[in-house]
Structures are given as structure tokens and as C-alpha cells.
Amino acid sequence: LSLSLFLSPPPPMASRPTVHVVSTIKGLRRVLETHAECKGIPFKFHECFDDKGHWLKAKDFAELSKQEISRGTIVLGEPTMISQMYDLGMLQEAKWVQSTWAGADHIIKAIPNQPNFALTRLAGVFGPAMAEYVVGQIIARERGFETFMSDQKAHFWRGEERALPYRLLDELSIAILGLGDIGSCIATACKALGMRVVGVGRRERQSSEIQAPVDSYCTLEQVSETLNTFDYVCNVMPSTNLTRDLLSDKKLWGGMEGDSSSCCVFINVGRGDVISQNFLIQALDVGLIHGAILDVLPIEPLPEDNPLWDHPSVRVTPHVSCLSLPSMVATALAKNYEAFTNENNDKELSFQVSWGSGY
Fold first, then answer.
1. Residues 6 or more apart from 333 whose CB is under 8 A from it?
2. Cis peptide leading into residue 11 (ω within 30°)
3. What's the whole-model pTM score?
4. Quick one: 263 exposed, middle or buried, by C-beta within 10 A (0-12, 13-18, 19+)?
5. What secondary structure, in 3-state letters, does 71-87 show?
6. From its phi and psi, is residue 144 left (phi > 0), alpha (psi between -120 and 50) or beta?
7. How far is CA 254 from CA 226, 250, 274, 287, 288, in A?
8. How far apart are the C-alpha atoms of 288 and 262, rounded to whole Å?
9. CA distance 292 to 229
10. Which residue, 135, 126, 92, is CA-closest to 232?
């Protein structure tokens, strides 16, 4: 008889924890199932749409999904879903929750105290796309693209004699508020096109701490009363207790008395609550700020009767400077999954949210 008949079978390999996917991102399932970095990760996909294609709320999930998620240790989803599942007690067994958004403010508002699970946000992937948005908006404004679109609708040939004057980017300056991953990418793009780039933060930083190719770095206090001397001011700061209404201070913009000849355009791709709507409209009306390009608003979706829609100096886009693309989510999830399941426990989760700092 073969000796192998008397040998005990090898012990089964420890099963890898399942990732419960609760997301409305189109195409995410296909990418997660085929992405090379996600190979070997077990997924359980839960239906998030009703028969009419509308997003389901967590309370309306199938009962089996509720039970499976409640027993799971890893959950992937949008902050809206995460907050709803937490309220329903569906995350009591969760050890790690991966958000598909960059910001953590929605979850922190809904879950004010540190939960029993580690929360990671999607980060380190948005910089290039948001840099394209910022540079694209600057170029469109400087070259008068909106006017040319109106001319085309009117069948009007402007001609060289009526050509719009414009400035080259190497004549312009931009202050970037927040020099994290996204701010650094924006700074790199603007600097590559010849703009004078100044990085601005809330605290002093050594030159060795700054990876972005900025011409200089200063704190908000150091640029007090001079923000509106830049051609563009771009906010990339997150929403925290320290940043809410931070820019609603007339001293930062040079005061509010009388008219101003400011040429400064405010671009907001960070969070909408960094400046109050009333302050912004007032600053625009008196010329303290020349224009505003807003991809993030204090209230989203922006109500139909909100005055920002019709303000002549405001351009609104619906929080699309960078979408959470399936490939971005897959890459971030795979990296953190490797860290979470590492047997030596010597790898940290990337972009883990701190309830103390607010991001």
C-alpha cells in the first residue's frame, strides 16, 4: 500500500475575508472581477438599485444582503451607504470599511465618534484629473471659450478685428490652498505651464516637507490681506472643524470696504463649506473677488432657487472635477486589502481616517 494513504491530508488554506461591495459606481463590479491587482480577493456584490434604476437606501436592501453585510468584516461603498448601514447596525462586525470617496466629512458628520472599524478613504488617485479640471477652467476663462460658444450659436464671426484679448498662463499667478496629494498635482500642472505658484497652508512647513514645485510657501496668516492679488486662488482643503468658513474672512481678501479692482478668481475643488455663500456673493458683488468657479458647494445638490446659479460671476459644475472611477477604487482596495490581510501585521492601511483631525 502506498504510504500516502496513511498520511493526513494537508490542512485547508485559511480562507480570505470577503469584501462586501455596496456601491452605485457604474462598471465597478466588472473592474473588480477582472482587475489584475484584485485577483484572489473574494467579493460579494449587493444590489443597490431598484427595478427603476433608482438608488436603494440601506433599509431597502434585500434581507439576505442585510444579513450577509452584518456578518462581514470588510465593506466597500459610498459614504452615504456606509452611514445608513451604520445607523441600521449593519457594521457591528466590520473591521475595515473602504470608502469610494476622497472626503470623509459626510461619514464623520453621520458618525461623530470613532466607530469600531477602521475607515479608509479613496485618495492618492484624484490629483491628475483634478489638475486637468483646474487648468482647463483657467484656460477656458482666459481664452473666452464661453464667448466663442455664444458666437457660434448666433452665427457670428468675430474676426481678428474683434478678437478677445487674452493672457498667457506664464503671465499669471495662482495660490493653492492645501498642498497634499491633489494640491501638489495642481501645482505641478500649473508650474509646467509657466504660472507663478504659491503654496498656502494653515501651518509652517520646512522646504523639505514640500514635494510640490512651488515658487514659495506661506501660511494663511502670511498672505492675509493679499489673497485677492493673485490671479487665481484654488482651494483644495478638506472640510474639518479648522477649515469651515476659514475663507469667510474679509481680511484675507484685503477688506470689504468700497469697490475693489481685484482680478482674482476663486476656484473651489476642496469642500464647499470653506467659504460661506453669503460672504462669497458679497465679495463678488463689491469686486473683492472677480469671479468664482465652484465644483463643490455647501449644499449638494445645489437647490434650483439658489442665487449662485444665476450670478454672472459664478460658474458651477456638479462636483465632477474628478469622479471615483472603477479602476481607482480597484487599485486602492487591492493595496489596502493586502495590508489588512498581511499575516505579519506590519503594513498600515493607506489613507486611514482620523476622527480627531477630521480627514
1. 19, 32, 38, 41, 76, 98
2. no
3. 0.88
4. middle
5. HCCEEEECHHHHHHHHH
6. left
7. 6, 6, 18, 11, 8
8. 6
9. 15
10. 135
The residue to which cell 484679448 is assigned:
165
> What cell was used for 121?
478613504
Print pLDDT tens along the chain (359 aa).
454 444 555 444 458 999 999 999 999 999 999 999 999 999 999 999 999 999 999 999 999 999 999 999 999 999 999 999 999 999 999 999 999 999 888 899 999 999 999 999 999 999 999 999 999 999 999 999 999 999 999 999 998 889 999 999 999 999 999 998 999 999 999 999 999 999 998 888 887 788 889 999 999 888 877 898 999 999 999 888 889 999 999 988 987 654 556 789 999 999 999 999 999 999 999 999 999 999 999 999 999 999 999 999 999 999 999 999 999 999 999 999 999 999 877 789 999 999 988 88
In the chain, the amino acid numbered 347 is K
Determine how many CB atoms are found less than 10 A away from the CB of residue 70.
16
Beta bridge partners of 74: 19, 96
Distance between CA atoms of 290 and 266, rounded to whole angstroms? 8
Sorted by sequence, the CB contacts under 8 Å of residue 353 that are 6+ apart come out as 99, 104, 107, 108, 119, 120, 121, 359
Strands 265-268 and 232-235: parallel
What cell does 86 get?
451604520
Q: How far apart are the first and last CA of the chain?
A: 65
Report how far residue 297's alpha carbon sits from residue 310's, in angstroms, rounded to the nearest whole number: 15
Cell numbers that stand for 76 in this block: 466597500
Cell numbers 479640471 label which residue? 133
